[in-house]
Design a protein that fits this description.
Layout: H1 3-34, E1 36-37, E2 47-48, H2 52-59, H3 61-93, H4 99-111, H5 114-124, H6 131-138, H7 152-180, H8 184-192, H9 197-208, H10 210-225, H11 229-235, H12 244-254, H13 258-286
Antiparallel strand pairs: 1-2
Helix pairs in contact: 1-13, 3-7, 3-10, 4-7, 5-7, 5-11, 7-10, 7-11, 10-13, 12-13
C-alpha cells in the first residue's frame, strides 16, 4: 500500500468511525434487543426469545390497527400529494415574472419543521375557535362547533392533508425540473399533428414524468410510514390516530418494552428499506 492510499484511508477514517458508532452499532444493538424479552421495569426477567417479539407484533391487534391507520394515511397522501404536486409544478412551469416568488412561497411548508406544520393545522381545525369552524360560522353553514379531531377517519384524513402540505413542495420541484427538461420540439411536433392541450399532457408530459412520479410516490410512501410529529401535535398519543411510528414510541418509551419496541423498529425499517431501494433505483433510472 503506497503513501497516497494510506493518506486517503486516514482522511476517511473519522467518517467510518462516526458511522460505526452512531449508525451501524445502534442498528446491530437494536436487532439484538429485538430478539430478547427486555423490559426496563422487569430487568431481572430479561431472556432470549428469538423471533417471538416479531410474531407477537404481527398477531397484535394494536399493530394491525396502527398499520391500517398508516396505510390509510398513505392512500390519502398519494391521492392528494400527486394531484397537488402536478398542479403546483404546472403552475410554476408557466413563464412569468412571479415564477421565482411563487417557487419560494411553495417551498415554505417543506422548510418548516413537521411539528410546526402540525400545530398550525391544529389551530385551523380546533373544535370551537379554529379557523375552519369560524369560516363555517361566517357563511352560516353551521351554528354548532365541529370537533374535527374526535373522529378516527377525520383525524387520519387531516393528518394526511398536513403531511401532503409538507411534502408536496419537494415533489413539485422534482416534477418541475423534469418538465423543464422536456424538449419543446416534442410539443411543437404534437401541435403540427393537431394535438390538444389535454392530449399533449396525457400522451407526452405524463409519460415523460414517470421517473419523477416514481420518486414522488416513493417519497410520499416513506413519509407516510414514518409520520410522527404531525400525529403528536394533532391528536397526541391517543389510539385514535396511532400510526406505526407512534405505536413504536408508545411501546418503547411509554411502556419501556425495549425488546418489543426494537422489533417494531426493525419492521418499520424493513418497510422503509424496501421503498428506499425503489427510490434509489428510480433516481438511477432518472439519471
Amino acid at each position: 500500500m503506497n503513501s497516497k492510499n494510506k493518506l486517503g484511508y486516514l482522511f476517511i477514517f473519522p467518517s467510518i468511525l462516526i458511522l460505526a458508532i452512531f449508525v451501524f452499532y445502534p442498528i446491530f444493538l437494536t436487532f439484538k434487543y429485538s430478539l430478547y424479552y427486555f423490559k426496563l421495569t422487569r430487568l431481572s426477567k430479561t431472556h432470549f426469545i428469538f423471533l417471538d417479539n416479531y410474531k407477537n407484533i404481527i398477531l397484535s391487534r394494536e399493530f394491525i390497527s396502527a398499520l391500517y391507520n398508516t396505510l390509510f394515511i398513505i392512500f390519502i397522501l398519494l391521492i392528494l400529494g400527486l394531484l397537488s404536486s402536478i398542479f403546483v409544478a404546472l403552475i410554476l412551469n408557466k413563464k412569468n415574472k412571479l415564477n421565482k416568488f411563487l417557487t419560494a412561497i411553495a417551498i415554505i411548508p417543506w422548510a418548516l419543521p413537521p411539528i410546526v406544520n402540525g400545530l398550525i393545522w391544529k389551530f385551523i381545525f380546533y373544535p370551537e375557535i379554529g379557523f375552519f369552524n369560524k369560516l363555517l360560522y361566517f357563511f352560516k353553514i353551521t351554528n354548532e362547533p365541529i370537533n374535527w379531531l374526535n373522529d378516527k377517519y377525520g383525524s387520519l384524513i387531516i393528518i394526511a392533508i398536513i403531511v401532503a402540505w409538507r411534502v408536496v413542495p419537494f415533489s413539485a420541484i422534482i416534477l418541475l425540473a423534469n418538465m423543464q427538461s422536456i424538449s419543446e420540439d416534442v410539443y411543437e411536433a404534437a401541435d403540427i399533428d393537431g394535438a390538444t392541450s389535454f392530449q399533449k399532457f396525457f400522451h407526452i408530459t405524463i409519460p415523460l414524468l414517470i421517473p419523477s412520479l416514481i420518486i414522488s410516490i416513493t417519497n410520499f410512501i416513506l413519509t407516510g410510514i414514518t409520520v410522527f410529529d404531525e400525529v403528536i401535535s394533532l391528536v397526541g398519543y391517543r389510539k385514535l390516530g396511532e400510526t406505526l411510528s407512534v405505536y413504536n414510541y408508545n411501546e418503547t418509551f411509554s411502556f419501556l418494552n425495549i425488546g418489543y419496541g426494537s422489533a417494531i423498529t426493525y419492521i418499520i425499517m424493513i418497510l422503509s428499506g424496501i421503498f428506499g431501494f425503489i427510490y434509489i433505483k428510480a433516481l438511477e433510472r432518472k439519471n
